[in-house]
Design goal:
Layout (H helix, E strand, L loop, with lengths): L12 E7 L76 E6 L6 E5 L3 E5 L8 E5 L8 E6 L5 E5 L3 E6 L2 E9 L11 E6 L6 E5 L3 E5 L8 E5 L11 E6 L5 E5 L3 E5 L8 E5 L5 E6 L19 H4 L11 E6 L7 E4 L3 E6 L2 E6 L15 E2 L1 H4 L49 E8 L4 E9 L2 E2 L1 H8 L5 H6 L10 E5 L2 E4 L11 E8 L8 E6 L8 E5 L3 E6 L10 E5 H5 L7 E4 L10 E2 L2 E2 L6 E6 L5 E7 L10 E6 L7 E9 L2 E9 L4 E13 L2 E4 L8 E5 L5 E10 L5 E8 L10 E7 L7 E7 L17 E4 L7 E8 L5 E8 L3
Parallel strand pairs: 36-40
Antiparallel strand pairs: 1-39, 2-3, 3-4, 4-5, 6-7, 7-8, 8-9, 10-11, 11-12, 12-13, 14-15, 15-16, 16-17, 18-30, 19-51, 20-21, 21-22, 22-23, 24-25, 25-29, 26-27, 27-28, 29-30, 31-32, 32-33, 33-34, 35-37, 37-38, 38-39, 40-41, 41-42, 42-43, 42-44, 45-46, 46-47, 47-48, 49-50, 50-51
Length: 806
């Protein structure tokens, strides 16, 4: 009787178009770019410092550097090519064949033998751009690459041929033969660099000498002078080198360290420090689990699913059980697996079997809790370390701070300086039904908060909307740090701007049993956007953020599940930035079952027109494809706040709330998504199955955002919490479940849980929230639902139950 379908008419529909993927889609040359020598306060680069060698330059611009940009003003940043016949069947990012530094931005580019190139910092080679394809017209091994002051990309091949072009095609503009001095051959070269002040080419040889000249005549100016390496390094260790815009020479070595120096002293300014070749650091937990590089069956797991029950349903089918939690946690998610069930709330993840018994052992506590603070401990830094002595997986050495995060340049805080030192939070858990793996996502954060939070302290009289709209120049201070527990301090004006960092942490279980351990990763490319979110389709994890605190960084990321399932240290991932998605920063992936023709989906989080993006799966590794963008205008959608989206059986299900001053409505929209003439198409016509339903909770306002789940039989379950607007009302707050069966025109009221139902005596109405629903992968029909409760004694728990649609 609570079902009141809202009349509707077909809305306008448009296929807006395709967005091409730019080589450097989001980087602003004026933005803070800690790529070379930086000021310890602001993070901006200092004035260029002259080299030790004679700075006399050639008259005019060297003939090997063109004045005109063949790429129409974008320097080396042109669109990546499509997949070519030279792509190897197996992609491995370990072997670097060239490194260069752009003259305009100071971004470091890294080319691999697997024909990928990325852009980043000297210490993190994918910071600005995840790997993309490169190609060339010359079939020969690469000696080295370098970039000129005006962003020409140069390559030198082992057959004596050189090329000029852009980062994705270094031979695009021209090819030519190059000569070496003194009878040397290309095999003698260990690295080539272009000095940005005069575009003079420096070639380094394995006999400890170097020459200077042009890109075509390597010894045109001088040959040959001696150079020195850092202690313990040899010429054979060099994998690439180039000059930064300040004329400091950066040299990368095959042991994943790099140094900064002059032309003749390679570590004059900085002794070797670690760099990361890939955008993710990898490990495993527990630490004594073998490092698997092949299929998971390479070593016997401690617990196999067949050892206890195997994939099964709960007995009885509608069983419920209680999970005590340590506090008022939020962001509840439930993830039924083959036999285990994962539940995430705030900073905790628990695992139970389907009879309500906690799983213990193999790293899980007696309560079934997975200790995330231990799982990701090796990625954070909780106490000061000596520079150069950082742990290999300490993320703080790769996040782009101009000074050590726990050094004297930054104030004393409640933890360890400005370092990423806190335990994970904002946890999410999902189950990969194809691979039989639990997937966990969490946030890590340094101890400096973002500009938005500093506005709250500097301008307490403003609303959240006014604070969020403020520009950095409109207030004093640009960050907040916790000086002591519970004491937040505004940083001085102009100091430490743009240093706040949040990083995504990811874990994938080795088997369907979480007691067998996890592979773990942390993403190094980061920003300060909050509220991470994820979804899983057949072959990819889709990551995004619901927060829009900063526009930089990826808006959506695809990560290969095939690589994650076997614990690859460098899994394939593809970033989509705001320009790839029509300028949108905040998108959310729907919970996607199956793969909709070779695409992963994300939805724009605006509350007016609806924008959907299909992210094509790459036909070959790192061959990023343009996103297809579709728009649908829904009539009478004013005030509709979408909370959950599911894609199932070629239908997008959107559920959300329509708030009024005195009450709330729950709205469910079912929108078909299909291919029409080979193009992705969304329809708001009832002829194609478009449906919208509106529900009025019987007793007042919503307590929590509604959730939706759809099973293989196309049955839909929604759940939401409600509360009476009158605190003295006779009807207590509760949680309501509604189900729409296949072929039915009306919804069934399945269940209403209310205060005092036996599990939640004295339930505070404001705490009945964090509702979650998911489908059991064993029969693809049973629904699992959860919601949180609190008691008058201050106790907290989560009710978990199975709903049998039959």
């Amino acid at each position: 009787m609570f079902n009141s379908p809202r009349p509707h008419r077909p809305a306008m529909l448009a296929l807006v178009g395709l967005f091409a993927c730019a080589d450097e889609p989001f980087v602003d040359a004026s933005a803070d770019d800690p790529t070379f020598e930086q000021d310890a306060t602001t993070g901006y680069s200092t004035d260029a410092m002259p080299d030790d060698e004679d700075p006399t330059s050639l008259a005019g611009t060297p003939t090997s550097i063109e004045d005109e940009d063949p790429n129409g003003g974008v320097g080396p940043f042109g669109p990546g090519p499509g997949p070519g016949p030279d792509v190897p069947p197996l992609l491995e990012l370990d072997r670097l064949v060239g490194l260069g530094i752009a003259g305009s931005t100071g971004h470091a580019y890294a080319w691999t033998a697997a024909k990928t190139v990325s852009a980043g910092l000297p210490e993190q080679l994918t910071w600005h751009r995840s790997p993309y394809r490169w190609t060339s017209s010359v079939n020969s091994g690469v000696v080295d690459m370098a970039i000129s002051s005006i962003d020409r990309t140069y390559v030198w091949f082992a057959n004596g041929t050189g090329g000029k072009g852009q980062t994705s095609n270094p031979t695009l503009t021209s090819t030519w033969a190059y000569t070496l001095p003194g009878g040397r051959t290309p095999a003698d070269i260990v690295g080539i660099a272009i000095r940005k002040s005069d575009d003079r080419t420096h070639a380094y040889y394995d006999d400890g000498t170097y020459s200077t000249g042009t890109t075509t005549t390597l010894g045109a100016n001088s040959c040959c002078s001696s150079y020195t390496l850092p202690p313990g390094k040899s010429m054979a260790d060099i994998v690439g080198m180039d000059f930064a815009p300040n004329n400091r020479l950066h040299t990368w070595y095959d042991d994943e360290t790099y140094s900064i120096g002059t032309a003749n002293d390679l570590d004059a300014y900085q002794a070797p420090r670690r760099y990361a070749r890939h955008g993710m650091l990898a490990s495993r937990w527990p630490a004594d689990a073998p490092n698997v590089v092949g299929p998971a069956t390479d070593w016997p797991p401690e617990h196999d699913v067949d050892d206890y029950d195997g994939p099964q349903l709960p007995s009885p089918p509608a069983s419920t059980f209680d999970v005590p939690v340590g506090g008022n946690s939020s962001d509840l998610l439930v993830a039924p697996g083959h036999d285990a069930i994962g539940m995430a709330f705030d900073a905790s993840v628990y695992f139970y079997d389907k009879e309500g018994v906690p799983l213990s052992g193999g790293g899980l506590s007696a309560s079934g809790r997975l200790p995330l603070e231990q799982m990701f401990a090796e990625f954070v830094r909780t106490s000061p370390v000596t520079p150069g002595q950082e742990a290999p997986r300490d993320v703080n050495q790769y996040i782009g701070f101009p000074e050590a995060c726990d050094g004297p340049a930054y104030p004393t805080t409640s933890e360890n300086g400005y370092c990423v030192s806190t335990a994970p939070y904002d946890t999410r858990v999902h189950f990969d039904p194809v691979g039989g793996r639990f997937v966990i996502l969490a946030n890590l954060r340094n101890r400096l908060w973002s500009d938005y939070f500093s506005n709250q302290y500097a301008n307490p009289e403003l609303s959240d909307a006014e604070l969020y709209a403020m520009d950095m120049d409109d207030y004093d201070g640009c960050g907040v740090y916790e000086e002591s527990p519970g004491s937040n301090t505004l940083v001085p004006e102009g100091a430490h701007c743009k240093l706040p960092r949040r990083l995504l942490a990811l874990a994938v279980s080795r088997t369907a049993d979480p007691r067998d351990g996890f592979f773990t990763w942390v993403f190094l490319e980061n920003n300060y956007r909050d509220w991470p979110w994820m979804a899983i389709d057949d072959g990819w994890i889709i990551l995004s953020h619901k927060g829009g605190e900063q526009p930089q960084g990826p808006a959506a990321t695809l990560v290969s599940l095939a690589d994650l399932r076997v614990g690859k240290a460098r899994p394939q991932y593809i970033n989509y930035y705001a320009p790839d998605l029509g300028g949108r920063v905040r998108v959310e992936p729907p919970q996607q079952v199956g793969t909709w023709p070779g695409n992963s989906l994300v939805v724009d989080m605006s509350a007016d027109d609806w924008w959907f993006f299909a992210l094509p799966h790459p036909p070959q590794p790192y061959a990023k494809q343009p996103a297809a963008m579709l728009a649908a205008t829904l009539e009478d959608a004013s005030g509709f706040s979408r909370e959950k989206t599911v894609f199932r059986n070629d239908m997008l299900h959107l559920v959300g709330a329509i708030e009024t001053e005195s009450t709330s409505h729950v709205r469910h929209i079912r929108m078909p998504l299909f291919l029409l003439g080979g193009q992705p198409t969304i329809s708001t016509s009832t002829n194609w199955g478009y449906v919208t339903d509106t529900f009025l909770p019987p007793f007042g306002k919503l307590l929590d955002a509604p959730m939706v789940a759809v099973n293989g039989a196309d049955e839909t379950l929604m759940a939401w919490g409600f509360a009476g607007t009158d605190p003295n009302a006779a009807v207590p707050p509760g949680v309501q479940h509604e189900m729409l069966r296949t072929g039915a025109s009306d919804w069934d009221l399945r269940a209403v849980f209310r205060e005092g139902d036996g599990y939640a005596e004295g339930l505070p109405s404001q705490q009945l929230k964090a509702i979650s629903a998911a489908v059991d992968p064993v029969d693809d029909r049973t629904f699992w639902v959860t919601h949180k409760y609190g008691t008058a004694l201050g106790q907290w728990g989560v009710v978990v139950g199975a709903v049998d649609p039959s």
